[in-house]
Amino acid sequence: MDKTEYARIIGLDLRVTGNTYPVKDQLKAMGCVWGSRDKCWFAPSPETREKAMALLGTQPLLNSPPPPDLGPVDVAAECARHGRVPLPGSGPVPFRRASRKGEPSQVGESFWGKHKGKRQRFLILSEDRPRYLSRDYLEDMDMFDTRPGWYRGVEAVAVEPTPQEVDADPRGPRQTAMREAREKPWRDALALVREMSRLEPKKEGTLPDEARGPGAVSIAIHSRAPGSTASMDEGSVHASGDKAWYHHRGHYDDYRATLIEVACPGTAARVRDVAAALAAAGPDRGTTIDGRVYSADVRGVPFLPPKVPDPGAVQSRSPEGPARPDAGASR
Fold first, then answer.
1. What residues pair up with 223 in beta bridges, in sequence order?
2. What is the distance between the alpha carbons of residues 183 and 162, in angstroms, rounded to a whole number?
């Protein structure tokens, strides 16, 4: 049998499967050909395949039997086995979960998910084998909001969340209130900088010495995209006495510095209050608001709480060692 005929019988799916080793000589006498690539015998015609399969007996197409049909899943029993209570009228829902550390994807684990526009707590009842989704596959399937990695298909059912899960929910009321309280000093500082940037009159120039002298308070805010090291200057506000200033050094395409001076005691007091709240929140750590990472440089706030040194941290020491109280005294 030549390659053309071999290709033709492969296209017709004339495979002879099963326990063919005891009857291999009879299959060869019928005209069947062994396919080394597919690891099975091929019959030259449908009639020959029927005779070969009759010779083998009633053999399935695959060497392994199909999985048994266990019937519908008893949702109440499965949830009770894991100590959970299903929601009334809820049934198994398919999900695709990431097989990463910290991502629930095993049977018995629960996660927050959305089904039919409603966010609920789901308990995983069954799982599939992990599958790697490459970047090319995600682009072909227009799955641009999914990053490459290992994923597994699971079936989950909506259950009643526990009080601990409600408190730990990132979108729950408790976590939302904590996040809003954490972001409030930053949002107040951003609102102050943006309000002062729209005031008039604007002029070019640098900050006066009065805005940098003793008793002056300043807030300089920078922002960057997540994962990027290039930061952008959002502007700075300064206060000294009854005066307040807004200063912007200019972007890379506009090097002209913008300076706005406000002779208003209320504005200067607001700058001091916002600077104190932002300094207490820890501006050196920064925070993410509306998809951007903000950091601030607060100076001139004399009423900050003293920083308590960490006993486990390694204290830096100068080469000469700590200064003695009587270092300047004469012997």
1. 232, 294
2. 27
- Output the six-digit token pair for 126: 């069954």
Cβ count within 10 A of residue 189:
24
Cα separation, 128 vs 105, in Å, equals 10
What distance in Å separates the CA atoms of residue 27 and residue 48, rounded to the nearest whole number? 9
For tokens 């206060």, name the residue: 239
Measured over the CA atoms of residue 101, residue 105, residue 111 and residue 117, the dihedral's sign is: positive
**CA dist., res. 167 & res. 173, Å (int):** 8
The pLDDT tens digits for 42-62 are 888 888 888 888 887 654 444
Domain ranges of the chain: 3-56, 75-162, 173-299
Taking the chain, what is the end-to-end CA distance rounded to the nearest angstrom? 112
User: How are strands ordered across the β-sheet holding 40-42?
Assistant: 15-16, 40-42, 33-35
The pLDDT tens digits of the residues spanning 239-277 come to 988 899 998 877 655 567 788 888 888 888 999 999 988
Give residue-wise pLDDT tens across range 173-204: 888 888 888 889 889 999 999 999 888 888 88
Task: Report d(CA 274, CA 192) in Å as an integer.
Answer: 8
In 10 A of CB 97, how many CB atoms? Answer: 23
What type of residue sits at position 155? E
**Predicted TM-score (pTM) of this structure:** 0.52
| Cis geometry, peptide bond prior to residue 201 (ω within 30 degrees of 0) | yes
For every residue of 49-70, DSSP letters joined together read: HHHHHHHH-S--SSSSPPPP--
The CB density around residue 250, as the number of other CB atoms within 10 Å, is 12
CA dist 240 and 217 (Å) reads: 7
